[in-house]
From TrEMBL:
InterPro entries: CdaR-like_regulators, PucR_C-HTH_dom, PucR_C-HTH_sf, RsbRD_N_dom. It holds the Pfam family HTH_30. Signal peptide: none annotated. It comes from Amycolatopsis orientalis (Nocardia orientalis). Residues 15-142 form the RsbT co-antagonist protein RsbRD N-terminal domain. This is Uncharacterized protein. Residues 297-355 form the PucR C-terminal helix-turn-helix domain.
Length: 374
């Protein structure tokens, strides 16, 4: 829509007064700013369909910039202004409809007027938003948190390189993400570390060649794989997954649990539905036995599948009498039959036994750590 299709000056002034009055009503603390020049500015925006690049330097535009600055100074968010401008625009719709019904208005005034009104609201929001942001000088800590968020959003390095320079962070070749419990991280560390300790799930990004333990306070945390900075979100995903398995007592707790020390466990628990199905199918012959007998037979089965020798070697590994082992082996042969001689079945049994051993006892539900970053 070109400027010639926008509301004429007289109609634009009527609509502008309604918009400005609406803003005054919704935000009375800003009413002194909204003088005649502000109304004329809104009318000009409407008349030119919000497309004139000179609007930003018009005298009346300062009123809307000052509103943005005042909102920031009062510690308020931008959403108040945005909602007020949108509401004031909606208040002007009945006025626009009335004008479109007047003789000589033309049938297109309603449609073109609505478009002009929407663009006008957008101009007011952009003016106040730019001033609000210009009034805010972020601290170095905020810059570094913003940088960490940008990196973990998966954006390519070119998108956050400028912010990295502003925050004084030199991207290393490899980084490691750390997921930590609240209170597990020291309050200060070197400039090479990026951290967000403010949320429910604190996390850090550290170069892979520094001693990670020195940035921790000795409580529960987990580190992901070393990756290029562009892939940091992957490292954080595995760090959080590791921490979740520690919470569930699948992985042994410690001051810093490293992802790389538990690859088999991660593999077994990558798809727990599939792993559970394998355990149930493979170990079905002993599933219905009393828990004590089941545990002894599972232990003997695992030792048998790992051993190169016969009953004496298995007995030595388990610390029981060889005859006890022979009795258990006969029982296993009855229960599992020819599956004990099939290489594929033997592999499935070893995997199932390992997964069954790692599975925690059922207990009170624990809150799970989200797998993806914020």
């Amino acid at each position: 829509m070109t400027a010639s299709h926008a509301p004429a000056r007289s109609a634009a002034l009527v609509i502008a007064r309604t918009v400005v009055d609406g803003v005054r009503h919704l935000l009375p603390e800003h009413a002194p700013l909204l003088d005649t020049r502000a109304t004329e500015f809104v009318a000009s925006v409407l008349e030119h369909d919000g497309r004139d690049s000179a609007f930003g330097i018009a005298a009346g535009a300062d009123a809307f910039r000052q509103m943005g600055v005042a909102e920031y100074a009062a510690g308020k968010g931008l959403d108040r202004l945005s909602r007020a401008f949108h509401s004031a625009g909606r208040c002007a719709l009945p006025v626009l409809a009335s004008l479109s019904r007047q003789p000589g208005a033309g049938p297109a005034l309603m449609d073109t007027g609505v478009e002009a009104l929407l663009r006008c609201v957008d101009v007011l929001i952009r003016l106040s938003t730019a001033a609000y942001r210009a009034a805010h000088t972020p601290s170095m800590a905020e810059l570094r948190r913003d940088l960490l968020q940008e990196i973990l959003s998966g954006r390519p390095p070119a998108k956050w390189a400028g912010l990295a320079a502003e925050a004084g962070w030199v991207p290393p070749a490899k980084v490691v993400a750390i997921a930590a419990e609240p209170g597990a991280v020291r309050a200060s560390f070197g400039p090479e570390v990026l951290a967000d300790l403010t949320g429910e799930y604190p996390h850090l990004l550290v170069p892979d060649d520094i001693e990670i333990g020195r940035v921790l306070a000795g409580t529960r945390a987990a580190g992901g794989p070393a990756v290029a900075p562009a892939d940091a979100v992957t490292s954080l995903r595995w760090a959080r997954r590791t921490l979740e398995l520690v919470r569930r007592e699948v992985i042994e707790d410690g001051p810093l649990v490293r992802w790389s020390d538990h690859l088999t466990t991660h593999w077994l628990f990558a798809d727990e539905v599939l792993t559970t199905a394998l355990v149930r199918r493979s170990l079905a012959p002993i599933a219905g036995l009393p828990s004590t007998e089941r545990a002894k037979l599972a232990e003997t089965l695992d030792a048998m599948l790992s051993a190169r020798g016969g009953a004496p070697e298995i007995a030595n590994n388990l610390g029981v009498h060889p005859q006890t082992v022979r009795n258990r082996l006969r029982r296993l042969r009855v229960l599992f039959g020819d599956r004990l001689d099939d290489p594929k079945e033997r592999l499935d049994l070893r995997i199932a036994l390992r997964a069954d051993l790692l599975a925690p006892d059922p207990g009170p539900a624990r809150p799970a750590t989200p797998i993806r970053a914020a």
